[in-house]
Design goal:
Layout: E1 7-8, E2 18-19, E3 39-44, E4 55-58, E5 61-64, E6 74-82, E7 85-93, E8 99-105, E9 108-111, E10 121-129, E11 132-140, E12 146-152, E13 155-158, E14 169-176, E15 179-187, E16 193-199, E17 202-205, E18 215-222, E19 227-235, E20 238-245, E21 248-251, E22 261-269, E23 272-280, E24 286-292, E25 295-298, E26 308-316, E27 319-327, E28 333-339, E29 342-345, E30 356-362
Length: 363
């Protein structure tokens, strides 16, 4: 299961909770440089009643979106801006307490079908390609286990699981021509999470650093020649940040050995591969940052003694935007993004409530 801050539950990953990336763009590539850039970001924003509200920030100003029931939680998990239209995908909880997956286009809500109408569904990623709208996520089966899914123009396709009845998730999405890719987590019969991706509904497993331990693919990008997948894989006592290029796994350098590191986002810009995430230091504090072609760049958090994460990335021209959240010295989770290493805070609806980002798009 996921918490409101985008974590996969500890029960799924052997006692560790890690952030998973929610894809924002169609292929993980950068947007072109623009002297008048507009920054869109979405995530968790709570009002004074402690209700999670659907919407996004546009150049720092909050844009609210209608919910099925304003007294219940809703959230935008992924954004795409295409042809002057703003697409926002996420969920809204109805009056019966059921999480309904859906898409807002220019503020108008369209619900997506679920496997069971009275059970929860959630969104992880969004792609707009031409006139087609693709969504990836997961929907609860009748036995309440999570089933990975994709939707194309509202039509639901469930993706095969290695073990029926066991939770599996689609966490990232890419479209290349007529091919649809969704990466994620697929539990094997022993309950170990296997990283991989579905291409047009067919599962391809990726090698783990240790096949007896869980791994998760959190993000992907596809070009005409290469398939990039990112995430983390256990090795020893801790998960290690990893990438897979055309099926070959490579671990990434971390801040401290035997400490948690993970990739949550991927962006391709020219010949460069950017990977956003976290690497835990020797004091067990999660450090935000990104890898550019395998080299780690740490970002300065609001508090060096409290955790901070990069959850989404965008590259526009020479500018690198890394979005996520950072804890204040008082321990309040605060939404914002780093632009070329400089922290840009985003005003929450209630400054006493926690907020965090899930997606960033730069136009």
């Amino acid at each position: 299961m996921r918490s409101s801050y985008g974590f996969i539950s500890a029960s799924l990953l052997g006692g560790l909770a890690l952030t998973t990336f929610l894809a924002c763009t169609s292929d993980g590539t950068s947007t072109p440089a623009d002297p008048a850039k507009v920054v869109y970001v979405s995530g968790v924003n709570r009002n004074t009643a402690n209700i999670q509200v659907s919407g996004y920030w546009k150049d720092g100003a909050w844009v609210g979106l209608p919910a099925l029931d304003a007294t219940r939680n809703a959230m935008v998990a992924a954004l795409v801006v295409s042809g002057g239209d703003v697409y926002a995908a996420g969920y809204s909880t109805n009056s019966s307490g059921v999480k309904v997956a859906g898409v807002w286009k220019n503020g108008a809500w369209t619900a997506l079908p679920s496997l069971v109408a009275t059970a929860n569904a959630d969104v992880a990623a969004l792609v707009v390609s031409g006139t087609d709208v693709y969504v990836a996520g997961y929907s609860s089966a009748s036995d309440f286990s999570w089933v990975p899914c994709t939707w194309k123009n509202g039509a639901l396709t469930s993706l095969p699981r290695l073990t029926p009845g066991t939770d599996s998730y689609a966490t990232g999405l890419a479209v290349q021509g007529s091919d649809v890719y969704a990466c994620g987590y697929n539990a094997d019969p022993t309950g170990v999470g296997v990283p991989g991706y579905w291409k047009n509904g067919t599962w391809t497993a990726l090698p783990a650093l240790d096949a007896t331990m869980p791994s998760v693919a959190t993000a992907m990008a596809v070009t005409t020649t290469d398939i990039y997948v990112a995430g983390y894989s256990y090795s020893g006592i801790a998960p290690v940040a990893c990438t897979w290029k055309n099926g070959t796994v490579a671990s990434l350098p971390c801040v401290a050995a035997d400490k948690t590191a993970a990739v949550n986002a991927i962006a391709l810009a020219a010949a460069n591969v950017y990977l956003g995430g976290l690497s835990t230091n020797s004091s067990n504090v999660a450090t935000p940052g990104y890898w550019k072609n395998g080299t780690w760049t740490a970002l300065t958090p609001l508090s060096t003694t409290n955790d901070a994460y990069v959850i989404a990335l965008a590259v526009s021209g020479e500018d690198v935007y890394a979005a996520g959240w950072s804890n204040t010295a008082a321990g309040l989770v605060t939404a914002g993004y780093w632009k070329n290493g400089i922290w840009v805070p985003l005003a929450p609806l209630d400054p006493t409530r926690a907020s965090s980002l899930r997606c960033i798009v730069v136009q």
